[in-house]
Specification:
- The protein is of the alpha/beta class.
- The chain has two domains: about 1-220, Rossmann fold; about 230-235 and about 245-500, 3-Layer(aba) Sandwich (UDP-N-acetylmuramoyl-L-alanine:D-glutamate ligase), CATH 3.40.1190.
- It is built from 17 helices and 18 strands.
- The protein has helices at about 5-20, 25-45, 60-70, 90-100, 140-150, 215-220, 230-235, 260-275, 290-295, 330-345, 355-360, 380-385, 390-405, 440-450, 455-480, 485-490, 495-500, and strands at about 1-5, 50-55, 75-80, 110, 125-130, 155-160, 180-185, 205-210, 225, 250-255, 280-285, 300, 320-325, 350, 375, 410, 415-420, 425.
- The strands form two sheets. Strands 1-9-18-17-16-15-14-13-10-11-12 form an eleven-stranded mixed β-sheet, sandwiched between helices.
- Strand 14, helix 11 (about 355-360) and strand 15 (about 375) form a beta-alpha-beta unit.
- Bound molecules: ligand NAX and potassium ion.
- Potassium ion binds near residues 130, 158, 159 and 161.
- It holds the Pfam family Carb_kinase.
- It comes from Christiangramia aestuarii.
Length: about 500
Amino acid sequence: MKILTAEQLSEADKETMKIQDITSEELMERAATLVFKEIHKRLNGAPIPIKIFCGIGNNGGDGLVIARHLIQHDYQVKVYVVNYSDKRSDDFLANYEKLKEVTNNWPELIKEDTRFPEIGTGDFVIDAIFGIGLNRPVKGWTGDLVEHINDSGAFTLAIDMPSGLFTDQVPGEEAAVIEADYTLSFQNPKLVFYLPQTMDYSGELQILDIGLDKELLKSLDAQAFLIDKEEAAGMYHHRRSNTHKGDYGNVLIMGGSFGKIGSVLLTATAALRSGSGLCSLYIPGCGYNIVQTGLPEAMVLTDEDDKMLSAYPNNFDANVVCFGMGVGTEEKTKNALKELLENFSDPVVIDADGLNILSKDKELLDLLPENSILTPHPGELKRLIGEWEDDFEKLEMAKDFSEKYKVILVIKGAHTFTINGKSMYVNNSGNPGMSTAGSGDVLSGVITSFLGQGYEPVEAAVLGVFLHGLSGDIAASEFGLESLLAGDIAKNIGRAVKKLFERDAVEE
Ligand SMILES: NC(=O)C1=CN([C@@H]2O[C@H](COP(=O)(O)OP(=O)(O)OC[C@H]3O[C@@H](n4cnc5c(N)ncnc54)[C@H](O)[C@@H]3O)[C@@H](O)[C@H]2O)[C@@H](O)CC1
Ligand SMILES: [K+]
Protein backbone atom coordinates (compact mmCIF):
# COMPACT_ATOMS: atom_id res chain seq x y z
CA MET A 1 0.00 0.00 0.00
CA LYS A 2 1.21 3.50 -0.72
CA ILE A 3 2.29 5.72 2.13
CA LEU A 4 1.22 9.25 1.22
CA THR A 5 1.88 12.72 2.61
CA ALA A 6 -0.72 14.97 4.24
CA GLU A 7 -0.66 17.25 1.17
CA GLN A 8 -1.30 14.34 -1.18
CA LEU A 9 -4.16 13.10 0.98
CA SER A 10 -5.94 16.41 1.33
CA GLU A 11 -5.50 16.97 -2.41
CA ALA A 12 -6.93 13.47 -3.02
CA ASP A 13 -9.91 14.39 -0.78
CA LYS A 14 -10.61 17.45 -2.94
CA GLU A 15 -10.16 15.67 -6.27
CA THR A 16 -12.40 12.80 -5.14
CA MET A 17 -15.18 15.25 -4.28
CA LYS A 18 -15.03 16.57 -7.85
CA ILE A 19 -14.79 13.14 -9.49
CA GLN A 20 -17.57 11.60 -7.37
CA ASP A 21 -19.58 14.83 -7.31
CA ILE A 22 -19.95 14.85 -3.54
CA THR A 23 -19.53 17.59 -0.98
CA SER A 24 -16.85 17.71 1.64
CA GLU A 25 -19.57 17.15 4.24
CA GLU A 26 -20.66 13.98 2.46
CA LEU A 27 -17.09 12.68 2.38
CA MET A 28 -16.77 13.44 6.09
CA GLU A 29 -20.02 11.60 6.77
CA ARG A 30 -18.71 8.59 4.85
CA ALA A 31 -15.33 8.55 6.61
CA ALA A 32 -16.61 9.14 10.12
CA THR A 33 -19.47 6.66 9.71
CA LEU A 34 -16.88 3.99 8.98
CA VAL A 35 -15.18 4.92 12.24
CA PHE A 36 -18.49 4.68 14.08
CA LYS A 37 -19.08 1.20 12.62
CA GLU A 38 -15.67 0.02 13.81
CA ILE A 39 -16.39 1.29 17.31
CA HIS A 40 -19.91 -0.15 17.35
CA LYS A 41 -18.62 -3.54 16.17
CA ARG A 42 -16.29 -3.71 19.17
CA LEU A 43 -18.36 -2.05 21.91
CA ASN A 44 -21.56 -3.71 20.79
CA GLY A 45 -23.70 -1.39 22.87
CA ALA A 46 -21.62 -1.61 26.08
CA PRO A 47 -22.51 1.18 28.58
CA ILE A 48 -18.99 2.62 28.69
CA PRO A 49 -18.65 6.40 29.20
CA ILE A 50 -17.41 7.77 25.87
CA LYS A 51 -15.68 11.16 25.91
CA ILE A 52 -15.08 12.71 22.52
CA PHE A 53 -12.63 15.61 22.27
CA CYS A 54 -13.24 17.55 19.08
CA GLY A 55 -11.09 20.26 17.57
CA ILE A 56 -12.67 23.00 15.48
CA GLY A 57 -11.47 21.83 12.07
CA ASN A 58 -12.43 18.81 10.03
CA ASN A 59 -10.87 16.30 12.41
CA GLY A 60 -13.23 17.76 14.99
CA GLY A 61 -16.01 17.49 12.41
CA ASP A 62 -15.31 13.76 12.20
CA GLY A 63 -15.62 13.61 15.98
CA LEU A 64 -19.06 15.25 15.82
CA VAL A 65 -20.30 12.80 13.19
CA ILE A 66 -19.06 9.87 15.28
CA ALA A 67 -20.79 11.39 18.34
CA ARG A 68 -24.10 11.69 16.48
CA HIS A 69 -24.09 8.05 15.38
CA LEU A 70 -23.07 6.83 18.83
CA ILE A 71 -25.84 8.87 20.48
CA GLN A 72 -28.37 7.52 17.98
CA HIS A 73 -27.27 4.04 19.04
CA ASP A 74 -27.83 4.86 22.73
CA TYR A 75 -24.22 5.10 23.83
CA GLN A 76 -23.29 7.34 26.77
CA VAL A 77 -21.52 10.15 24.97
CA LYS A 78 -20.06 13.43 26.17
CA VAL A 79 -18.65 15.79 23.57
CA TYR A 80 -16.02 18.42 24.33
CA VAL A 81 -15.07 21.11 21.85
CA VAL A 82 -11.46 22.10 22.24
CA ASN A 83 -11.51 25.81 21.45
CA TYR A 84 -7.91 26.33 20.40
CA SER A 85 -9.25 28.86 17.89
CA ASP A 86 -12.51 30.77 17.50
CA LYS A 87 -12.69 29.85 13.82
CA ARG A 88 -14.72 26.82 12.81
CA SER A 89 -14.52 24.81 9.58
CA ASP A 90 -17.75 24.68 7.53
CA ASP A 91 -18.10 20.95 7.98
CA PHE A 92 -17.55 21.28 11.71
CA LEU A 93 -20.38 23.83 11.88
CA ALA A 94 -22.72 21.74 9.74
CA ASN A 95 -22.19 18.73 11.95
CA TYR A 96 -22.49 20.78 15.11
CA GLU A 97 -26.00 21.73 13.97
CA LYS A 98 -26.81 18.11 13.17
CA LEU A 99 -25.66 17.01 16.60
CA LYS A 100 -28.16 19.35 18.21
CA GLU A 101 -30.93 17.41 16.49
CA VAL A 102 -30.10 14.20 18.33
CA THR A 103 -29.27 15.36 21.86
CA ASN A 104 -29.96 17.96 24.50
CA ASN A 105 -26.65 17.19 26.10
CA TRP A 106 -24.70 20.10 24.58
CA PRO A 107 -21.04 19.83 23.80
CA GLU A 108 -18.93 21.46 26.49
CA LEU A 109 -16.47 24.11 25.38
CA ILE A 110 -12.93 23.77 26.70
CA LYS A 111 -11.01 27.05 26.65
CA GLU A 112 -7.79 28.36 28.07
CA ASP A 113 -8.98 28.67 31.68
CA THR A 114 -11.55 25.87 31.73
CA ARG A 115 -10.99 23.12 34.27
CA PHE A 116 -10.38 19.97 32.29
CA PRO A 117 -13.03 17.27 32.65
CA GLU A 118 -12.23 14.28 34.79
CA ILE A 119 -11.35 11.20 32.77
CA GLY A 120 -11.47 7.81 34.50
CA THR A 121 -9.39 4.81 33.54
CA GLY A 122 -12.58 3.05 32.48
CA ASP A 123 -13.60 5.83 30.07
CA PHE A 124 -13.30 5.50 26.33
CA VAL A 125 -11.69 8.61 24.86
CA ILE A 126 -11.96 9.58 21.23
CA ASP A 127 -9.28 11.98 20.08
CA ALA A 128 -10.59 14.17 17.26
CA ILE A 129 -8.64 17.30 18.17
CA PHE A 130 -6.15 17.55 15.29
CA GLY A 131 -5.71 15.43 12.17
CA ILE A 132 -3.54 15.96 9.12
CA GLY A 133 -4.16 19.71 9.32
CA LEU A 134 -1.70 20.13 12.21
CA ASN A 135 0.75 22.86 11.24
CA ARG A 136 2.58 23.69 14.48
CA PRO A 137 3.48 21.80 17.62
CA VAL A 138 0.75 21.44 20.23
CA LYS A 139 1.73 23.54 23.24
CA GLY A 140 0.17 25.76 25.89
CA TRP A 141 -3.19 24.81 27.40
CA THR A 142 -4.07 22.57 24.43
CA GLY A 143 -0.85 20.71 25.14
CA ASP A 144 -1.86 20.48 28.82
CA LEU A 145 -5.18 18.95 27.76
CA VAL A 146 -3.36 16.39 25.63
CA GLU A 147 -1.17 15.50 28.64
CA HIS A 148 -4.30 15.32 30.79
CA ILE A 149 -5.81 12.75 28.39
CA ASN A 150 -2.53 10.81 28.28
CA ASP A 151 -2.29 10.76 32.08
CA SER A 152 -5.87 9.53 32.51
CA GLY A 153 -5.07 5.91 31.68
CA ALA A 154 -8.28 5.74 29.63
CA PHE A 155 -8.35 3.77 26.39
CA THR A 156 -7.78 6.34 23.66
CA LEU A 157 -8.81 6.02 20.04
CA ALA A 158 -7.24 8.54 17.66
CA ILE A 159 -9.11 9.58 14.54
CA ASP A 160 -6.90 9.77 11.44
CA MET A 161 -3.81 10.85 13.44
CA PRO A 162 -3.00 11.00 17.15
CA SER A 163 -3.39 14.74 17.81
CA GLY A 164 -0.07 16.53 17.87
CA LEU A 165 1.62 14.12 15.49
CA PHE A 166 2.76 15.64 12.18
CA THR A 167 2.93 13.54 9.06
CA ASP A 168 6.26 14.97 7.92
CA GLN A 169 8.32 15.84 10.98
CA VAL A 170 8.91 14.66 14.52
CA PRO A 171 6.88 16.59 17.11
CA GLY A 172 9.83 18.06 19.02
CA GLU A 173 10.64 17.53 22.66
CA GLU A 174 8.30 20.10 24.19
CA ALA A 175 5.27 19.34 22.07
CA ALA A 176 2.37 17.30 23.37
CA VAL A 177 1.09 14.32 21.39
CA ILE A 178 -1.78 11.95 22.13
CA GLU A 179 -0.51 8.50 23.05
CA ALA A 180 -3.25 6.49 21.42
CA ASP A 181 -4.06 2.88 22.13
CA TYR A 182 -5.59 2.55 18.71
CA THR A 183 -5.59 4.72 15.60
CA LEU A 184 -8.15 4.54 12.82
CA SER A 185 -6.53 6.37 9.94
CA PHE A 186 -8.11 7.34 6.65
CA GLN A 187 -7.34 5.81 3.27
CA ASN A 188 -3.55 5.44 3.34
CA PRO A 189 -0.92 4.92 6.01
CA LYS A 190 1.33 7.81 7.06
CA LEU A 191 5.10 7.47 7.39
CA VAL A 192 5.21 8.54 11.05
CA PHE A 193 3.26 5.44 12.04
CA TYR A 194 6.34 3.36 11.24
CA LEU A 195 9.33 5.44 12.38
CA PRO A 196 11.06 4.41 15.62
CA GLN A 197 10.75 7.92 17.08
CA THR A 198 7.02 8.29 16.42
CA MET A 199 5.48 4.82 15.98
CA ASP A 200 4.48 4.42 19.62
CA TYR A 201 2.01 7.34 19.50
CA SER A 202 -0.43 5.56 17.20
CA GLY A 203 -0.71 2.30 19.15
CA GLU A 204 -2.49 -0.40 17.19
CA LEU A 205 -3.21 0.76 13.69
CA GLN A 206 -6.04 0.26 11.24
CA ILE A 207 -6.41 1.93 7.88
CA LEU A 208 -9.96 2.61 6.70
CA ASP A 209 -10.70 2.79 2.99
CA ILE A 210 -12.93 5.86 2.78
CA GLY A 211 -13.41 5.45 -0.95
CA LEU A 212 -11.11 8.10 -2.38
CA ASP A 213 -10.81 7.73 -6.13
CA LYS A 214 -8.75 4.62 -6.94
CA GLU A 215 -7.37 5.86 -10.28
CA LEU A 216 -6.27 9.09 -8.67
CA LEU A 217 -4.52 7.26 -5.83
CA LYS A 218 -2.83 5.00 -8.37
CA SER A 219 -1.38 8.03 -10.13
CA LEU A 220 0.25 9.49 -7.02
CA ASP A 221 3.94 8.98 -6.27
CA ALA A 222 4.27 7.12 -3.02
CA GLN A 223 6.38 8.63 -0.28
CA ALA A 224 7.12 4.99 0.59
CA PHE A 225 5.48 1.59 0.11
CA LEU A 226 4.08 -0.37 3.02
CA ILE A 227 4.82 -4.06 2.47
CA ASP A 228 2.16 -6.51 3.60
CA LYS A 229 1.19 -10.00 2.53
CA GLU A 230 -0.40 -8.87 -0.70
CA GLU A 231 2.66 -6.94 -1.88
CA ALA A 232 5.01 -9.74 -0.83
CA ALA A 233 2.92 -12.39 -2.61
CA GLY A 234 3.13 -10.31 -5.78
CA MET A 235 6.94 -10.47 -5.69
CA TYR A 236 7.24 -14.19 -5.02
CA HIS A 237 8.51 -16.42 -7.88
CA HIS A 238 6.66 -19.72 -8.00
CA ARG A 239 8.78 -22.77 -8.74
CA ARG A 240 8.42 -24.50 -12.07
CA SER A 241 8.38 -28.33 -12.20
CA ASN A 242 11.05 -28.72 -14.82
CA THR A 243 13.93 -27.33 -12.77
CA HIS A 244 16.98 -28.56 -10.87
CA LYS A 245 19.11 -27.26 -8.03
CA GLY A 246 21.29 -25.29 -10.44
CA ASP A 247 18.28 -23.08 -11.14
CA TYR A 248 18.06 -21.89 -7.56
CA GLY A 249 21.40 -20.29 -6.99
CA ASN A 250 24.79 -21.19 -5.67
CA VAL A 251 25.44 -18.95 -2.71
CA LEU A 252 28.62 -18.49 -0.75
CA ILE A 253 28.46 -17.29 2.83
CA MET A 254 31.68 -15.87 4.25
CA GLY A 255 31.57 -15.39 7.96
CA GLY A 256 32.40 -16.54 11.47
CA SER A 257 35.39 -16.35 13.77
CA PHE A 258 36.45 -18.29 16.85
CA GLY A 259 33.45 -18.23 19.22
CA LYS A 260 31.05 -16.96 16.54
CA ILE A 261 30.65 -19.88 14.19
CA GLY A 262 26.97 -20.18 15.11
CA SER A 263 26.24 -17.01 13.14
CA VAL A 264 27.19 -18.54 9.77
CA LEU A 265 25.31 -21.67 10.62
CA LEU A 266 22.17 -19.60 11.09
CA THR A 267 22.73 -17.69 7.85
CA ALA A 268 23.32 -20.86 5.86
CA THR A 269 20.30 -22.60 7.39
CA ALA A 270 18.17 -19.61 6.44
CA ALA A 271 19.55 -19.57 2.89
CA LEU A 272 18.75 -23.25 2.38
CA ARG A 273 15.33 -22.94 4.02
CA SER A 274 14.63 -20.02 1.68
CA GLY A 275 15.25 -22.20 -1.33
CA SER A 276 18.92 -21.92 -2.34
CA GLY A 277 19.90 -24.76 -4.65
CA LEU A 278 23.45 -24.88 -3.35
CA CYS A 279 24.91 -23.24 -0.29
CA SER A 280 28.60 -23.13 0.60
CA LEU A 281 30.33 -21.57 3.54
CA TYR A 282 33.77 -20.08 3.74
CA ILE A 283 34.81 -20.02 7.38
CA PRO A 284 37.91 -20.09 9.61
CA GLY A 285 39.32 -23.58 10.19
CA CYS A 286 37.95 -23.85 13.72
CA GLY A 287 34.38 -24.01 12.41
CA TYR A 288 34.77 -26.96 10.07
CA ASN A 289 33.40 -29.74 12.27
CA ILE A 290 30.71 -27.54 13.75
CA VAL A 291 29.22 -26.60 10.41
CA GLN A 292 29.56 -30.00 8.77
CA THR A 293 27.80 -31.56 11.72
CA GLY A 294 25.23 -28.82 12.23
CA LEU A 295 24.18 -28.48 8.60
CA PRO A 296 24.97 -31.48 6.41
CA GLU A 297 23.21 -29.86 3.44
CA ALA A 298 25.89 -27.15 3.19
CA MET A 299 29.38 -27.42 1.72
CA VAL A 300 32.28 -26.04 3.69
CA LEU A 301 35.53 -24.42 2.63
CA THR A 302 38.01 -23.26 5.25
CA ASP A 303 40.35 -20.31 5.38
CA GLU A 304 44.00 -21.04 6.09
CA ASP A 305 43.59 -19.07 9.33
CA ASP A 306 42.05 -21.16 12.07
CA LYS A 307 40.33 -18.35 13.97
CA MET A 308 39.30 -15.66 11.50
CA LEU A 309 38.82 -15.00 7.81
CA SER A 310 41.91 -13.75 6.00
CA ALA A 311 41.18 -14.28 2.31
CA TYR A 312 38.51 -14.66 -0.37
CA PRO A 313 38.34 -18.02 -2.20
CA ASN A 314 38.82 -16.54 -5.64
CA ASN A 315 38.43 -19.82 -7.48
CA PHE A 316 34.96 -20.47 -6.06
CA ASP A 317 32.12 -20.13 -8.50
CA ALA A 318 29.18 -18.60 -6.56
CA ASN A 319 26.46 -16.40 -8.04
CA VAL A 320 26.00 -14.45 -4.78
CA VAL A 321 28.32 -13.84 -1.87
CA CYS A 322 27.24 -12.80 1.61
CA PHE A 323 29.89 -11.46 3.96
CA GLY A 324 30.11 -10.35 7.53
CA MET A 325 28.27 -12.22 10.28
CA GLY A 326 30.56 -12.96 13.20
CA VAL A 327 33.76 -12.04 11.32
CA GLY A 328 35.22 -9.41 13.68
CA THR A 329 37.08 -6.40 12.32
CA GLU A 330 40.72 -7.52 12.29
CA GLU A 331 43.02 -6.24 9.54
CA LYS A 332 43.30 -9.73 8.03
CA THR A 333 39.54 -9.96 7.75
CA LYS A 334 39.35 -6.54 6.19
CA ASN A 335 41.70 -7.86 3.50
CA ALA A 336 39.33 -10.76 2.92
CA LEU A 337 36.50 -8.31 2.30
CA LYS A 338 38.69 -6.17 0.07
CA GLU A 339 39.66 -9.20 -2.01
CA LEU A 340 36.01 -10.15 -2.33
CA LEU A 341 35.02 -6.68 -3.52
CA GLU A 342 37.92 -6.50 -5.97
CA ASN A 343 37.12 -9.88 -7.49
CA PHE A 344 33.35 -10.25 -7.45
CA SER A 345 31.29 -8.04 -9.70
CA ASP A 346 27.71 -9.15 -8.97
CA PRO A 347 25.73 -7.76 -6.02
CA VAL A 348 26.89 -8.94 -2.60
CA VAL A 349 25.14 -8.91 0.77
CA ILE A 350 27.10 -7.29 3.60
CA ASP A 351 26.04 -7.61 7.23
CA ALA A 352 27.26 -7.05 10.79
CA ASP A 353 31.05 -6.74 11.14
CA GLY A 354 31.29 -6.58 7.35
CA LEU A 355 29.51 -3.23 7.70
CA ASN A 356 31.75 -2.16 10.56
CA ILE A 357 34.80 -2.85 8.37
CA LEU A 358 33.26 -0.67 5.63
CA SER A 359 32.62 2.08 8.18
CA LYS A 360 36.22 2.04 9.34
CA ASP A 361 37.61 2.17 5.82
CA LYS A 362 35.14 4.14 3.71
CA GLU A 363 37.28 3.75 0.56
CA LEU A 364 36.00 0.19 0.39
CA LEU A 365 32.52 1.54 -0.24
CA ASP A 366 33.58 2.56 -3.74
CA LEU A 367 34.38 -1.08 -4.49
CA LEU A 368 30.87 -2.34 -3.70
CA PRO A 369 29.25 -3.91 -6.79
CA GLU A 370 26.19 -2.00 -7.93
CA ASN A 371 22.93 -3.09 -6.22
CA SER A 372 24.73 -4.72 -3.33
CA ILE A 373 22.58 -5.05 -0.22
CA LEU A 374 23.74 -3.69 3.14
CA THR A 375 21.76 -4.73 6.22
CA PRO A 376 22.65 -2.42 9.13
CA HIS A 377 20.89 -2.13 12.47
CA PRO A 378 20.69 1.50 13.68
CA GLY A 379 24.12 1.42 15.36
CA GLU A 380 25.80 0.07 12.25
CA LEU A 381 23.93 2.57 10.12
CA LYS A 382 25.23 5.46 12.24
CA ARG A 383 28.78 4.27 11.78
CA LEU A 384 28.16 4.00 8.06
CA ILE A 385 26.33 7.26 7.25
CA GLY A 386 26.97 9.45 10.32
CA GLU A 387 24.74 10.84 13.09
CA TRP A 388 21.26 12.17 12.34
CA GLU A 389 19.04 14.69 14.12
CA ASP A 390 15.83 12.72 13.77
CA ASP A 391 14.29 9.86 11.81
CA PHE A 392 13.35 12.05 8.86
CA GLU A 393 16.93 13.22 8.48
CA LYS A 394 18.09 9.62 8.86
CA LEU A 395 15.97 8.58 5.90
CA GLU A 396 17.24 11.46 3.75
CA MET A 397 20.85 10.59 4.63
CA ALA A 398 20.19 6.93 3.89
CA LYS A 399 18.70 7.80 0.49
CA ASP A 400 21.74 9.95 -0.35
CA PHE A 401 24.05 7.14 0.68
CA SER A 402 22.09 4.62 -1.37
CA GLU A 403 22.24 6.88 -4.43
CA LYS A 404 25.90 7.77 -4.00
CA TYR A 405 27.14 4.20 -3.71
CA LYS A 406 24.33 2.60 -5.77
CA VAL A 407 23.54 0.14 -3.00
CA ILE A 408 20.37 -0.99 -1.24
CA LEU A 409 20.14 -0.29 2.48
CA VAL A 410 18.04 -2.53 4.71
CA ILE A 411 17.67 -0.58 7.95
CA LYS A 412 16.60 -3.10 10.55
CA GLY A 413 14.08 -2.20 13.22
CA ALA A 414 10.53 -2.85 14.41
CA HIS A 415 9.54 -1.75 10.90
CA THR A 416 12.54 -2.46 8.70
CA PHE A 417 13.05 0.15 5.98
CA THR A 418 14.55 -0.88 2.65
CA ILE A 419 16.01 2.08 0.77
CA ASN A 420 16.84 1.90 -2.91
CA GLY A 421 17.83 5.36 -4.10
CA LYS A 422 14.74 7.51 -3.65
CA SER A 423 12.41 4.53 -3.15
CA MET A 424 11.51 3.35 0.33
CA TYR A 425 9.77 0.16 1.43
CA VAL A 426 8.43 -0.20 4.95
CA ASN A 427 8.03 -3.70 6.31
CA ASN A 428 4.86 -4.57 8.18
CA SER A 429 5.56 -8.08 9.46
CA GLY A 430 7.48 -9.24 12.53
CA ASN A 431 7.29 -8.89 16.30
CA PRO A 432 9.44 -7.93 19.30
CA GLY A 433 10.28 -11.59 19.96
CA MET A 434 12.62 -11.27 17.00
CA SER A 435 14.85 -8.91 18.97
CA THR A 436 17.10 -11.83 19.76
CA ALA A 437 20.66 -12.90 18.98
CA GLY A 438 21.16 -14.20 15.46
CA SER A 439 17.93 -12.81 14.01
CA GLY A 440 19.95 -10.56 11.67
CA ASP A 441 22.14 -13.47 10.58
CA VAL A 442 18.99 -15.28 9.50
CA LEU A 443 17.77 -12.22 7.57
CA SER A 444 21.04 -12.06 5.60
CA GLY A 445 20.62 -15.70 4.68
CA VAL A 446 17.08 -15.18 3.41
CA ILE A 447 18.02 -12.15 1.32
CA THR A 448 21.15 -13.84 -0.06
CA SER A 449 19.11 -16.85 -1.01
CA PHE A 450 16.54 -14.83 -2.97
CA LEU A 451 19.28 -12.87 -4.69
CA GLY A 452 20.86 -16.17 -5.72
CA GLN A 453 17.51 -17.40 -7.05
CA GLY A 454 17.40 -14.55 -9.52
CA TYR A 455 15.18 -12.03 -7.78
CA GLU A 456 15.91 -8.38 -8.56
CA PRO A 457 18.12 -7.13 -5.71
CA VAL A 458 15.49 -4.77 -4.30
CA GLU A 459 12.85 -7.51 -4.43
CA ALA A 460 15.22 -9.97 -2.77
CA ALA A 461 15.64 -7.46 0.05
CA VAL A 462 11.99 -6.43 0.41
CA LEU A 463 10.54 -9.94 0.10
CA GLY A 464 13.30 -11.35 2.30
CA VAL A 465 12.55 -8.85 5.04
CA PHE A 466 8.82 -9.53 4.87
CA LEU A 467 9.15 -13.33 4.96
CA HIS A 468 11.70 -13.12 7.76
CA GLY A 469 9.15 -11.12 9.78
CA LEU A 470 6.25 -13.40 8.89
CA SER A 471 8.30 -16.44 9.82
CA GLY A 472 9.05 -14.74 13.13
CA ASP A 473 5.31 -14.21 13.61
CA ILE A 474 4.64 -17.89 12.98
CA ALA A 475 7.42 -18.89 15.38
CA ALA A 476 6.15 -16.46 18.03
CA SER A 477 2.64 -17.87 17.80
CA GLU A 478 4.12 -21.27 18.59
CA PHE A 479 6.73 -20.43 21.22
CA GLY A 480 5.74 -17.00 22.56
CA LEU A 481 7.81 -13.85 22.24
CA GLU A 482 10.38 -14.56 24.94
CA SER A 483 11.25 -18.08 23.81
CA LEU A 484 11.69 -17.29 20.17
CA LEU A 485 15.15 -18.21 18.86
CA ALA A 486 16.71 -16.99 15.64
CA GLY A 487 16.89 -20.60 14.48
CA ASP A 488 13.09 -20.81 14.74
CA ILE A 489 12.83 -17.95 12.24
CA ALA A 490 15.04 -19.82 9.79
CA LYS A 491 13.04 -23.03 10.21
CA ASN A 492 9.69 -21.39 9.53
CA ILE A 493 10.49 -19.60 6.26
CA GLY A 494 8.70 -22.32 4.28
CA ARG A 495 5.57 -21.91 6.38
CA ALA A 496 5.80 -18.16 5.85
CA VAL A 497 5.87 -18.65 2.09
CA LYS A 498 2.80 -20.90 2.33
CA LYS A 499 1.06 -18.29 4.45
CA LEU A 500 1.57 -15.68 1.75
CA PHE A 501 -1.02 -17.50 -0.29
CA GLU A 502 -3.48 -18.39 2.46
CA ARG A 503 -6.45 -16.15 3.07
CA ASP A 504 -6.79 -15.09 6.70
CA ALA A 505 -10.18 -15.72 8.26
CA VAL A 506 -10.27 -12.16 9.63
CA GLU A 507 -9.74 -10.72 6.17
CA GLU A 508 -12.82 -12.41 4.79
N1 LIG B 1 -13.18 16.31 3.09
C1 LIG B 1 -12.10 16.29 3.82
O1 LIG B 1 -11.22 17.14 3.68
C2 LIG B 1 -12.02 15.23 4.84
C3 LIG B 1 -11.29 15.50 5.99
N2 LIG B 1 -11.24 14.62 6.98
C4 LIG B 1 -10.69 14.99 8.28
O2 LIG B 1 -10.14 16.27 8.25
C5 LIG B 1 -8.88 16.28 8.87
C6 LIG B 1 -8.12 17.45 8.39
O3 LIG B 1 -8.89 18.57 8.75
P1 LIG B 1 -8.37 20.06 8.74
O4 LIG B 1 -7.61 20.30 7.52
O5 LIG B 1 -9.55 20.90 9.01
O6 LIG B 1 -7.35 20.13 9.94
P2 LIG B 1 -7.39 19.60 11.43
O7 LIG B 1 -8.76 19.31 11.86
O8 LIG B 1 -6.38 18.55 11.52
O9 LIG B 1 -6.84 20.89 12.20
C7 LIG B 1 -7.66 22.03 12.32
C8 LIG B 1 -6.97 23.35 12.16
O10 LIG B 1 -6.21 23.64 13.32
C9 LIG B 1 -5.23 24.61 13.05
N3 LIG B 1 -4.01 24.18 13.74
C10 LIG B 1 -3.06 23.35 13.29
N4 LIG B 1 -2.13 23.12 14.20
C11 LIG B 1 -2.51 23.81 15.30
C12 LIG B 1 -1.97 23.97 16.60
N5 LIG B 1 -0.86 23.35 16.96
N6 LIG B 1 -2.61 24.74 17.49
C13 LIG B 1 -3.75 25.36 17.16
N7 LIG B 1 -4.31 25.26 15.93
C14 LIG B 1 -3.70 24.50 15.02
C15 LIG B 1 -5.05 24.61 11.55
O11 LIG B 1 -5.40 25.87 11.07
C16 LIG B 1 -5.95 23.49 11.05
O12 LIG B 1 -6.58 23.80 9.86
C17 LIG B 1 -8.33 14.93 8.56
O13 LIG B 1 -7.30 14.56 9.43
C18 LIG B 1 -9.56 14.08 8.71
O14 LIG B 1 -9.75 13.76 10.07
C19 LIG B 1 -12.14 13.47 6.95
O15 LIG B 1 -13.37 13.89 7.40
C20 LIG B 1 -12.24 12.91 5.57
C21 LIG B 1 -12.71 13.95 4.61
K1 LIG C 1 -6.94 13.07 16.04
